[in-house]
Model the fold of this input.
Amino acid sequence: MRITIIGIGGIGSHLADWIACYLDNLQGEHTLTLVDGDVFEDRNRERQSFEALGNKAQSVGETLAKRYARVAIHAVAEYLTPENADFILLEGEVVFLCVDNHRTRKLASDAAGQLNEIVLISGGNELVDGNAQVYLRRNGVDVKPPLTMYHPEIAFPADKAPYEKNCEELARAGEPQILFTNLTAGVLMANAFRRLMRDGTLPYSEVFFDTDLNAVRTRDFAVKTDACLDQSLGNTETTEVEI
Amino acid sequence: MMKERYTLEEIRQMGEEEVYPLAKDEMRVPKAAMMSLTELRDEAAAWLSARGRLIEGAAFEGIGQTARPSAPPAPKPVIVRYGAYEGELPVAGKTVEQVLDQLRAAWNIDPNALVYLDGQTVADPGTQISEGATLEFAKPAGVKG
Done:
């Protein structure tokens, strides 16, 4: 199995450890690739899991390689960009997208849309709530909708990707986040992955959560054809879960 | 002395001392003396309805109607969703904008959230919501991570 995690921050730095552990205990040979152009700073310790400062992908990659010897771990010390997206999102992979901006989510979703077989699991959060989305393609067809389909804020992102920011913008501290919100997003992404690996399918394409309410709700948004884009949800079911 | 027209409610409120003379003397209902109060009221309502003297479309439908007024069924609740929130709310008949105003603060609904009514995009916030409908405010994806 080949898994890539893009974004090794509040969600990705924890998720990487769980996925590496999962792969380490799975039969066969498996590869985990970590992708991030950012570096760890001491102030990140309140929310992000790492041992050494420096590039996030490399730092976490080295830690996990020591911890999980059966998994081949690679680090790509770059942000996802239009130039490298085709080399990072590869045919037949599972990709966890743990980035902090919609422009990169759109880039990843569009790149995935060029592949025949891909699982793209994206997570994001605000202070106490967030969501996870699953974009699934099989035989060149969308089985679960792209990240952009029901989210115009991703389809037409107003923010900048890190590779578009200047040094001052990059150095600026992000908005406050809560560790437990990041962890909840990561767990829901991992749950979706586990269910997909076990059943080959998912009864939902998106899951919303609210950590204040400890509420989780899944939705199965249908893949819309060109004829009904922007007109309807085409959705089917909602399931409410309280955790 | 009978009035020209009565409402069904007025007949329901009549006591025996009022409805019996009406039934016996004015309406000349046979065997009125042997009838119960409910039967007298029913007879009065039927007599008046047949002559177009029962007000407000209260078409008399049968015996016992005066004794058992039927309440209109409650409208089906509307399913309203936003992210992890979902509820069945009595908002049928309200507009989308009214529901949004009502829930915006409680559910922290994003002002730019797309709105879907029964799965279809809502362009006009003045759209009225039918009973039993599903109203969804599409929660934007979380940005951070």
In short: The first strand of chain A starts at residue 2 and ends at 6. Chain A is about 30% helix and 25% strand. Residues 51 and 237 of chain A are 42 Å apart (CA to CA).
